[in-house]
Task: structure prediction
Amino acid sequence: MFEAEKYIQEYIDVREARGLSADTLNTDLSALCKVFRRRTIEFRHPPRHGVHLKNDPTKYNTETGETTRDVALTTGLRRRELGHLKVDDIKFIDFETVHIFSVGKGGKHNRTVLKGIIAVAKLKEYISRAEKMNNDFLLTKAEARVPDGLHYCRAMCAQNTYYAVLREMENDPAKRAEYIQKIKDSINKSWNNKTSKTKRLIICALMLAYMGLALYVIFMPAPDYRYEEYVRSEPPATNLIIEEKATPADSLSDEKIREMEEFFNQFNSESYE
Result:
């Protein structure tokens, strides 16, 4: 088996000539290097796309990906969402607002709201182009498969949309209340959705369980671990001073009164002497 070590480079070159992706080639080379205890830098191989994107997201851009990048910057959709985006998924609300319906990660149905005259104009231009090509999708298959880095486009689109909405609220303070109400309506609509009934019951059950636990912790008597030790041990010795109760004068006997008078008379006579 170890005679195959000298064919590693040839094997990678053949697979690269067949058009396999850089990720696949790097995975194959890493496995072979692990077996033969070699290092990947000892062999010529195409770099992964992500290596370039970490340093400069625009470094791996291609001429054929110009349209794809522009649509990604305009819509903020992920690569897979862009590839499945149809013309009918784009709805224009007014001259500066457009809604894009797509299926995102985990099969979630998303609605992306874009603001701005430029975004509306660009999307109308790309829709017109797709209609001329009799294409139901906004992008062609070749454009959807470009190796360009597109994730940074999503971040830039979010930033542009944020500042567009911020400027709109600054120019028209009533828009702030309008956006807040739209957010509330969207939450209520999602909450009242039939598909959310099960989630609603689960959330309510979890909230009740949490409240019950919180009340139990709050009102549960704190255990006194020293109490049992105190009960088992003998009480400490204390010096008790027991005071005799004074006997009222009217309850003394005549004999007792005479003895007290004699005592005081004798005491007074001795003190004067």
About this structure: The mean pLDDT is 77. The CA atoms of residues 258 and 264 lie 10 Å apart. The chain has twelve helices and three strands. The beta strands are 90-94, 97-103, 109-115.
